[in-house]
Structure formats: C-alpha cells, structure tokens
C-alpha cells in the first residue's frame, strides 16, 4: 500500500503540487484587504512585527479604534492619549473613540491629569467619525464635561453615542444639541431627571440624521411626534417608551425608514378610520414583557406595522406564545421576502417551527426556543427550509408520551389543565 501511494504521488503533474509562497512576491495591493479580515487587536499587533511592510499597513488598523480601559491587576489605566501625544502622526488613523466615565472619575485619572491629556489627543484626531461616551457606574459626579463637547464641536463627528446612568445636566445638554451634521445618534440616559428627547436638536439634525436610538421617551405623544417630524431622512429607528398607537403616526413621518426596533407599549388610544401610509420595513424587532393585555393585540399590531411585502428580518422578544394564525397571516404578505426569523420567549412547538420553515421558503436563519422529544423530530421540522444557513435552537427535551404546554384554569367550579400546545403527536395543519 505504501509503495502504491508513493507511485501515485510521483505520477501527479507538476501543477498539482502546491508551490511555495514567498512573501516578497505578495502583491501589496491585496495586503490591506487581507489584514482587515482579522478582528483581534492581538493579531494585528503580531502582524505589525512581521516586517516594515506589514507594520505600515497594520498600524492604521491598530489605531482606527481606541478604547480607554482599566487594568485592575496593575492598578493602572491604559489610554492611547499618551501614544497619540508622543506620536501625533498616528492621530490621522483614528476613526472610532470610546471614553468611559469610570476611567475619568478614578483617582489615578485625576491625579495624573488623564482627562486633559485625553482631550488634547482627541483634538488631534481630525479624521475621526465616531465618539462613544459610556458612564456605566451611577454617581452624582458627571465627568461628561463641557470641555469634552467643546472639542467635539471642532471635529467632523458623524456618529455620537451617549450612555449614562445619571442625568447629564442642562448645561451639558445645551452644548450637545449644538452639534450638527450627525448621521448616527444614540442617546441612553438615566430614567431620573429631565427626559432628553432631542428637544431643540431635531431641527438641526433633519438634513443629516439617518440612524437614531432613544433609550427612554416618557413624554406626551404629541411632543414625540413633533420632534420626529423634523427627521424625515431616518432609515433606522430604535426607540423605547412610545405607546403602540402612537407608532403608526411616527411611521407616517418617516418614508425612508427600513429598520424599526421598539417595545410594544399597549395604549388605549383610538385608531383613526383613514388608513396610515406606512413605509416598507425590511427589519422589525419588537420587545415586550407584559403577559396580560398583549395576548391578542400584540400580533394584530405587528401585522399592521408591516402591511407591505418586503420584510427581510423579524425579531420577537416576548413572553407570549406565538399563535399559529399569526405565522400564517405574516406569510400571506411576506412569504417571498422573510430570511431571518428570531424569537426569544416561550418554547415553540415543532409544528409551529415546521410551519415557519414551510411558509417562508427563503429563510436563511432561524433562532428560537423549541420543545422536542428527539433530534430527529427537529431535523424533520426544519427539512423544508431549503435555503437555511444558520439554525440556533434553545431545545427543551420533552417526553414523547406527555408533551403539553398550557395553564391551569377554573371551569365550572373545577380546576382543569388547558392545553395550549401539544408536542406529542405533531400533525401538519396547513
């Protein structure tokens, strides 16, 4: 056998033998594209030590994203400002910066003047496009200062994110709303204090803003609608605390919107008799934790939000069991377009999972909890999804003899178990 294997290899043509690769012969045009495929800084750091050529192409990647961090084991702060100030030419590579309130509030930062050094280095980053401020520790001291915003006003910022557990204060807010030409904006402030809902800012952002995240909108619906009306170019909206009935009026103001991430916040407001003119959503995420009032109205509301064909992705985070009729009604409109289906909540039955895979033939990704007696039943349920590329299931292994999901109810003076889903003997019902 060994001699036959040697003879077989010896008879192979020269073209079948992989040639050795000399790095000096590698085209420099494709090297940056290869290095961008790496997603770990440690890998870029290793590449930077290979040669001067690799170092030249890797350095911009290493300094494109800068984050401040605390190294607890050494009781020191790792911050890029020292390197940027020592080598100002590196500032031209910086595109994304994240500053953390924990770092700037620490004793080490105050004793070494780190905040002022960070501001000086930030002012040198003339090619920066994104700044994120994260204050992840509740405190009465707000390090997001006017000096920080004064530096941002001199830079070509296109993406701004502010996440804080404390109210940033009126003075800082008044300076923040002076920023213009923002394309992506994310504001997640504390629940206490004055609500921050772009009052006085939306007018300045109307000609540029295409992406908006608002963490809390506990304001009158009329004020929310008025503010959103100044942002007709929005393409993606993530918003919390808006009554579900108000969402229809908001969507009529956003003809270019294609992505919506919102809570289902049930309200009793009346719907108008004239149909709303809604945009065609491609991505929809709905979150809810209520168990009482949303059982019937939630599913009808979702169908009314996406009346036009074209939905590409649906994500549901709910405590309610998805009705079979909802799946069928959704498929009647979006059968040819839906590719991504994700559910977090109660376990789906195998029949419902099979229904999803059958009714949406273009599905490429499915993620959901499911109850199943064995792996073969899961394989059978998803076998109709011919285009499936990704399958992530949270499986509850149910007994093949007794597999029911339901609740205890009182009927005619007796306690009975009302079956909602039967996983025992799956039967196709579509």
UniProtKB/TrEMBL annotation:
InterPro entries: LRR_dom_sf. It comes from the Eukaryota. This is Uncharacterized protein. It comes from Fistulina hepatica ATCC 64428.
């Amino acid at each position: 056998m060994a001699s036959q294997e040697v003879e077989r290899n010896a008879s192979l043509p020269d073209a079948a033998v992989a040639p050795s690769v000399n790095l000096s012969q590698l085209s420099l045009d494709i090297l940056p594209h290869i290095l961008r495929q790496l997603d770990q800084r440690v890998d870029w750091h290793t590449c930077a030590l290979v040669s001067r050529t690799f170092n030249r192409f890797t350095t911009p990647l290493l300094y494109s994203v800068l984050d401040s961090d605390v190294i607890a084991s050494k009781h020191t702060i790792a911050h890029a400002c020292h390197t940027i100030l020592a080598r100002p030419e590196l500032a031209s590579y910086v595109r994304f910066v994240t500053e953390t309130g924990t770092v700037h509030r620490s004793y080490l930062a105050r004793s070494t003047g780190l905040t002022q050094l960070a501001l000086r280095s930030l002012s040198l980053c003339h090619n920066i496009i994104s700044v994120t401020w994260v204050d992840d520790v509740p405190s009465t001291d707000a390090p997001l200062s006017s000096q920080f915003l004064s530096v941002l006003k001199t830079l070509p910022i296109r993406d701004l994110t502010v996440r804080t557990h404390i109210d940033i204060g009126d003075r800082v807010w008044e300076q923040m709303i002076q920023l213009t030409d923002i394309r992506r904006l994310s504001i997640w402030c504390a629940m206490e204090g004055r609500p921050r809902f772009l009052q006085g800012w939306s007018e300045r952002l109307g000609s540029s803003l295409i992406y908006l995240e608002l963490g809390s909108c506990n304001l009158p619906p009329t004020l929310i609608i008025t503010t959103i009306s100044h942002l007709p170019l929005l393409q993606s909206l993530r918003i919390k605390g808006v009554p579900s009935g108000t969402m229809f009026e908001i969507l009529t103001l956003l003809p270019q919107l294609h992505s919506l991430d919102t809570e289902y916040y049930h309200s009793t407001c009346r719907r108008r008799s004239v149909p709303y003119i809604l945009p065609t959503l491609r991505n929809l995420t709905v979150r809810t934790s209520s168990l009482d009032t949303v059982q019937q109205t939630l599913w009808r509301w979702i169908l009314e939000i996406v009346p036009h064909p074209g939905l590409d992705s649906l994500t549901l985070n709910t405590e309610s069991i998805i009705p079979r009729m909802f799946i069928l009604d959704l498929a009647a409109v979006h059968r040819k377009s839906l590719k991504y289906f994700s559910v977090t909540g109660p376990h789906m039955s195998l029949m419902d999972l099979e229904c999803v895979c059958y009714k949406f033939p273009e599905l490429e990704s499915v993620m959901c909890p499911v109850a199943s007696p064995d792996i073969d039943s899961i394989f059978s349920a998803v076998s109709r999804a011919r285009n499936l590329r990704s399958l992530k299931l949270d499986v509850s292994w149910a007994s093949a003899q007794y597999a029911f999901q339901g609740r205890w109810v009182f009927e005619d003076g007796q306690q009975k178990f009302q079956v909602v889903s039967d996983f025992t003997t799956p039967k196709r019902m579509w």
